[in-house]
Design a protein that fits this description.
Length: about 325
């Protein structure tokens, strides 16, 4: 049986509107999660629309399979990263699709399961895992903490967490390794507090540390860059790209990628005429990022930081 509270879809109506759904459309949901967006997409593209659903997490694929069973052969699910979108499209013999949705980050289900280790929660102890694909061969957060040098750890915390005190924390971790491994979320929280990171600051430093580790473990920013490029490539002219982000690092990448694709030319401003010959491949559908309403945030606090950007594929590439 599918559980009811896997994940509440964020900016749902806004996403559906930007996808400009029509009956018979072929839509890729690159981040299935609890299939909230996917179900609504299938309903709005009835009777014959097709949904290709990807997720790196086998749990999400299993759950989505249960939730979307009633749509029969209108659904194709693939356990894969959206960075492989172009390969998946080729394997499924898709020529071009009408829309791609990427709803980034982790689902409530992933966050709420202590055994996944995505955040510190009181109660059952969390191992520092943080892999979205637990069946894969990627390194865990505990593995990173045990193996990266102080310089590499500092880079992770400052680049992916924008953490004040990144160097101090990195050094404290390397010191701690002489005593024993950091295996659980509580071990890490104790170390952050012991090192005095973020004292007197508004943001909880543990949130930034966990975010940084999660991004590093799942190579999230590189996956996003590759996924956006692949998504633009597989869209038909007029097809829609819709991306939901949850922190400024992701949003910056989406904004810059879409703007650059809309501009085309990459010649330095000092060139009097274009020499690169690149043409715009998309047009912006959202000038500014769309944010959730106060009512949505009140009903679903996890929507608070969501930002939606969308683009429309152009004929010339
Ligand atoms: C915010 S949730 C999506 C929620 C979904 N829209 C819904 O309505 O239930 C993000 C999902 O994307 C998945 N994910 C994150 N990065 C991914 C990637 N590179 N490729 C495929 N799936 C990814 C996560 O495993 C998670 O299940």
């Amino acid at each position: 049986m599918a559980t009811t509270s896997y994940h509440v879809p964020v900016l749902l109506e806004e996403s559906l509107e930007q996808l400009d759904l029509k009956p018979g459309a072929v839509i890729v949901d690159g981040t299935l999660g609890g299939a909230g967006h996917a179900q609504a997409i299938l309903e709005r593209t009835a009777p014959d629309g097709v949904l290709i659903g990807l997720d790196v997490d086998p749990d999400a694929i299993r759950e989505a399979g249960l939730r979307l069973g009633r749509f029969g052969d209108r659904v194709r699910l693939v356990q894969a990263s959206f960075r492989r979108l172009a390969d998946v499209a080729r394997e499924l013999e898709l020529v071009a699709v009408d829309g791609v949705l990427l709803d980034l980050g982790v689902s409530s289900h992933q966050l709420d399961r202590p055994e996944r280790g995505f955040r510190f929660s009181p109660g059952p102890e969390s191992p520092l895992d943080m892999r979205m694909d637990r069946a894969g061969e990627g390194i865990t957060a505990a593995g990173l903490l045990a193996s990266l040098s102080a310089e590499e750890l500092e880079r992770v915390f400052s680049k992916y967490g924008e953490l004040p005190g990144a160097r101090r924390l990195a050094r404290a971790i390397v010191e701690h390794r002489k005593l024993g491994p950091l295996a659980t979320a509580k071990d890490l929280i104790d170390l952050i507090q012991g090192a005095g990171i973020g004292r007197g600051r508004q943001h909880n430093p543990a949130t930034l540390v966990f975010q940084a580790l999660r991004i590093a473990v799942n190579d999230e920013l590189a996956a996003l860059e590759e996924g956006l490029a692949a998504a633009i490539r597989i869209l038909r002219p007029g097809g829609r790209l819709v991306v939901l982000t949850y922190h400024s690092l992701e949003d910056r990448i989406v904004k810059q990628t879409i703007r650059s694709a809309a501009k085309g030319c990459v010649c330095p401003p000092s060139f009097p005429v274009c020499r690169c010959g690149r043409k715009p491949s998309v047009r912006l559908a959202t000038r500014r990022a769309v944010e959730p309403t106060a009512a949505e945030v009140e009903g679903n606090p996890r929507a608070r930081s969501a930002r939606l950007r969308a683009a429309i594929r152009l004929e010339a590439a």
